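Internal tracking record. Fields below are filled automatically when a chain is submitted to the structure queue. Please do not edit lines marked as system-generated. If the sequence contains nonstandard residues, flag them in the REMARKS field before resubmitting.
Queue: standard
Priority: normal
Entity type: single polypeptide chain
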Amino acid sequence: MKKVLKYFSFLLVNVFFWIGVYSFYTYFLGYGSSNIEYVNSFSRYLMPVTILFSYFIILYLIPNYLLKKKYKLFLLYGGYTFIISFVAILLSVFYGLVFSSYLKEANSIVLTKSLALIILGVYFVVIIATAISFVVYSYLSNIKNEDLKNKILQAQLQLKQQELKLLKMQIHPHFLFNSLNTIYGFALAKKEEAPEMILKLSNLLDYILYQIDKPGVPLKSELEHIEDYISLEKMRFHDTLKVNVSFENLKSDMQVAPMLLIPFVENGFKHGAIIDGFLSIDILAKEEHGFFVFQMKNSCQKNEEKTKGIGLDNIRKRLEMLYANRYELDVNRQANEFYVELKIQLSDQKTIEDA
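SYSTEM-GENERATED OUTPUT FOLLOWS
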């Protein structure tokens, strides 16, 4: 239906344009003449050649040569078109004079314009029609470019969403692998803590299943998730674990991407080392100078090679996608300490849904 309306509108505009051209010819050629019937008849002989060469330039020469930057061929064929059209206009004028002669009244001036002005008048109309076509081509080209840009942006957005979904999916096996390994060890040892650990893991899985697909979750939920994970690890490490967790000056309405912080904590437990009888982990989350700040330190072997792991690679990609130019991530090792600091700008912060 839209195509039919579009075609009908195009046809209607063309009809009105050529009616306007015909009116121009009758006014231009008959100005000062009283023989209106002769002028109208003569004007009708000029219309076919005007329409034919206007559409030939608009529909063939311009799109096939000029718009494709084939300038030499455009000038060549344009020259041929000018020569042929000149001859055709002369023939039209000749036939107009001959076949309209029966309408000529004795001793009356039927045309007030010379042959040269008539030819110039025809070319003037062709130039106007061509100029209008350029405006239309430019307008349609802009619309096409905008549509193309929108399609590219939509495709990029879909790719971004797919990549982000893939990154989220990578969290599942990484997290589950660490947690199930812990429970497996307890089950083998037939320890009483195994059921409680399964319950803790159930809570964490509930968080993953129902929150991971959301673009953003309350920071409170993410921090509670971290506390559940730490509780799970405490059962594994018993008295060899020292954990200090502190949450300061945090707004209740703050949101973050789900499972954004847990990879840091996972890596702390996975790659941390027991020094002087303890695995030491310090976690601090706070708001400071318009930034959400997350800091974590864990003990590690001094000469141990730095290990990235799936978690840190994952988190860097997600941060770049969700908080581009609005975050700072510092990861380094000093002596027996591995240190991570993440800052996310909160000033003029949009919701995660808009990220």
